[in-house]
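Q: Predict the bound structure with calcium ion.
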Amino acid sequence: MNEGYLRIFGEFDVNGDNVLTREEFISGLDKFNKHLQLTERQKIKLMEMADKDGNNSIDFQEFSKLLNEIDVAEEEEGGFGGVKRQGFLPGT
Ligand SMILES: [Ca+2]
Ligand SMILES: [Ca+2]
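A: Predicted complex:
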């Protein structure tokens, strides 16, 4: 269990039911968007990346997988390279 991821998940999960709806995910991203500068399209793409089983909601398992993928993608693409450094993800 990654406590840092759990903390971020909690920030996204406004109503505390341990599942992120599409709305919670998108508005969660918006909270950090001043750093990330994601377009609407990128946000939807992230949502689709995160939602592995395609049920339009994101549970913690899916969420932490997404964060792992972002970690991995950091070096390859550089697109989310600033995510961790700018405080979106806590230091591990
Ligand atoms: Ca929720
Ligand atoms: Ca899902």
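A: Residues 3-75 form a domain with the Recoverin; domain 1 fold (CATH 1.10.238.10).
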